[in-house]
Amino acid sequence: MSANVFVWIEQRDGQPVTASWEALGVARQVAGAGRVTALVFGAGVDSIVALAFSYGADAVIRADDASLAHYRFEPYVALLARLVQAQQPDVILAGATIAGRELLAGAAADLNAPLLNDVTELSLENGKLRAVRPLLGGKVLSVEAVTGDGPQFATLRARAFPMPQAQEGRSGEVIAAEPALPADSIATQIERVEASSGTISLTDASIIVSGGRGVGGPEGFAPIRELAQVLGAAVGASRAAVDAGWIPYEHQVGQTGKVVSPDLYIAVGISGAIQHQAGMRTAKVIVAVNKDPEAPIFKLARYGIVGDLFEVLPALTEAFRKRLK
Amino acid sequence: MHVVVLTKMVPDTEATVTVDASGQVHWGDKLVINPWDEYAITEAVLIKGAHNVQVTVMTVGPEAHAEALKHGLAIGCDQAVRLWDPALEKHDSLAYATVVAAAIRKLGDVDLVIFGKEMSDLATEQHIFQTARKLGWNLLGFVAKIEALDFAARTIRVRRMGDHGVEIVASRLPAVISVLKDINEPKYPSFIGIRKAAKAEIPVWGLADLGLSAAEVAPRVQVLGYRELPKREGSAEIIEGATAQEKAEKLVARLLEEKIL
């Protein structure tokens, strides 16, 4: 079996996104003896092209242009659809980030091609993609497959697939591509970007410390932030804490927030409502800190501490600080 | 000037979901309006209040989904259309986008299409992005606020959540947007609204009405079956200790022993 696979390598402000390398690792497996081509769009992307080779690409298509500096739906979709139309790869992959999900869905629509979105398992069987996808907030897994012929698209949930090993000294053919749309025809202009208040993105984080109603107020997030800082973790929150105005919505984990799959999820003062579970049940290890020993979160967690978070969290921060030196 | 808002019914979040031995999923009988759509419908009605526009609420689905349309009418949408055809029984996101784009073209004067962020049952939003593409319109996904909307100048400016934070983005109409829950406080229907909606005759447009063939909506993705997520076992190991320090140190030791960190 061999297949020709395209992988979109996402960059933000010139920095590559980890989920793209995970997708490149999957592409290598899906391709078998076939060719893996990394697609790098942006302005000034040479360092990312080099990294794409080290993570397993055989070739790179580089579209380097000011109009592609930041992801925008129209110019990116038009370019991806044109490249796929021209080269007819068997499979096109990307990380299931916001941009990755928009871009692949858009290009698949242009080409009337099948798309498997936000998958946690992926294989190629008799030339057709087959995937597993969590539904209903992760209560059920759906097994889906592509029908018919032609290029097929899939986006891969961040952290559901292993990061490939980088190999020094690999290189290959670099093919230059021009933007598909002239810069002045693009209707959408990004006027300003307000950096998010959390420094580590929830969906990329390997550790998340999350607070809920039990933290009692905005000041309750101070010990959570301290613990997160020692662990290099992102800060999450339950809907109750967000609705109370203690922390901005972008931190919300759950059915109406973000879906995360960290290695370690520390739930502080979170009872564990089904809507919150929908966002975090695929975490590898869950630790719960809660005053109420009957809280449903203890049914989901591997380890629990029953106690007052204002005592437990500073103690945890101190204990981690000592051991992680 | 015309705004279209899309909605559908989904299984209740609280419902117990089971998968039987043959791999078929049972969602439970209770359907609710997709929670994200309440924000989308409310936003459409708020826009109607501020601008001289007509609002159409639309769904793709069998009879049961008319309930979501009635909710839209009760809150203040002007008219409802249900898109359905037996050929759409196993439709995928491409077929959805094809049908909705055809219906929006049939309405003719649409400037703005509003979706809730995702369908909560299928946890998917690709149909939104694909609808934009099938219309050939701009997409502004994950909108937290419409900062400015000018139907005469055909411009829109929004705050949207991108991967690296909030983007302030200006674009042109017509456009497709998907909205997050911070965009508004959902409106609830009045008694009079509910009575009026209950009496409404809702037209159903099939493939023939939309000028589409069954081949144009043939699914490209099929569901082979469902699996239950492996259950997490029982309950947590509670870390005991005389003081918070002792509990914390024991927990950290366990996490390090198991190479979780």
Terminal CA distance of chain B reads 57 Å
- Total beta strand runs of chain B: 15
Radius of gyration of chain B: 22 Å
The radius of gyration computed from the alpha-carbon positions of chain A, rounded to a whole number of angstroms, is 21 Å
| Topology order of chain B in helix (H) and strand (E) letters | EEEEEHEHEHEHEEEEHEEEH
Main structural class of chain B? alpha/beta
Q: Average pLDDT of chain B, to the nearest integer?
A: 92
H-E order of chain A: EEEHEHEHEHEEEEEEEEHEHEHEHEH
The biggest beta sheet of chain B reads: 9 strands, mixed
In CATH, the architecture of the largest domain in chain A is: 3-Layer(aba) Sandwich
What's the level 1 CATH class of the largest domain in chain B?
Alpha Beta
> In CATH's first tier, which class of the largest domain in chain A applies?
Alpha Beta
Give the oligomer, counting copies of the same chain as homo and different chains as hetero: heterodimer
Main sheet strand line-up of chain A: 7-11-6-1-4-5-12
Number of helices of chain A: 9
